[in-house]
């Protein structure tokens, strides 16, 4: 069985980064009976892009994210992959997303787009 994270970034794990280890060590470690590891391995958000394209798109990405790097710079948060989910970066992240949704979902610009 492969651990999700490992304190040793060179040891075996699904997410071999110090940022991943620090983030997951603060989680309550319980799950239900579903196979979350298999679902995690099969997750690929790019398979769903056709549902929202060509609608306006905002991506908030972490500046030092090694798990889901991107060459698109739209809203860069300081820190690592998980830093936008809590602490001071959460407010900046949520504020940017809220403003984006207000601008694009509450306007006539979105009229005619399908919602999934």
Report what the structure shows:
With 116 residues, the chain is mainly alpha-helical. The chain is 28% helix and 5% strand. The protein has a two-stranded parallel ribbon. The model has no long low-confidence stretch (mean pLDDT 78).
In short:
This protein is mainly alpha-helical and 116 residues long. The chain has 3 helices and 2 strands; from the N terminus they run H-H-E-E-H.
List the helices and strands and how they pair.
Blueprint (H helix, E strand, L loop, with lengths): L17 H7 L11 H7 L17 E3 L12 E3 L10 H18 L11
Parallel strand pairs: 1-2
InterPro entries: AB_hydrolase_fold (IPR029058)
Protein name: Esterase/lipase
Strand content: 5-15%
Class by alpha and beta content: mainly alpha
In total, how many beta strands?
2
Major β-sheet profile: 2 strands, parallel
Order of helices and strands: HHEEH
- Give the CA-based shape: globular
Number of domains: 2
Alpha-carbon distance between the termini? 36 Å
Number of continuous helical runs: 3
Mean pLDDT: 78
Helix content: 25-40%
Task: Please compute the radius of gyration using only Cα atoms.
Answer: 17 Å
Strand order of the largest sheet: 1-2
Q: Low-confidence segments, ≥5 residues, pLDDT <50?
A: none
Protein name: Esterase/lipase
Organism: Aspergillus oryzae (strain 3.042)
Features:
116 residues, mainly alpha, two-stranded parallel sheet, 3 helices, globular
């Amino acid at each position: 069985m492969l651990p999700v994270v490992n304190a040793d970034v060179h040891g075996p794990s699904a997410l071999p980064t110090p940022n991943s280890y620090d983030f997951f060590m603060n989680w309550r470690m319980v799950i239900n009976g579903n196979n979350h590891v298999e679902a995690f391995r099969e997750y690929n958000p790019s398979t769903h892009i056709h549902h929202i394209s060509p609608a306006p798109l905002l991506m908030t990405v972490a500046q030092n994210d090694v798990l889901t790097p991107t060459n698109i710079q739209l809203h860069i948060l300081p820190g690592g992959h998980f830093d936008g989910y809590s602490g001071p970066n959460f407010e900046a992240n949520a504020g940017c997303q809220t403003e984006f949704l207000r601008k694009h979902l509450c306007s006539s610009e979105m009229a005619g787009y399908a919602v999934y």
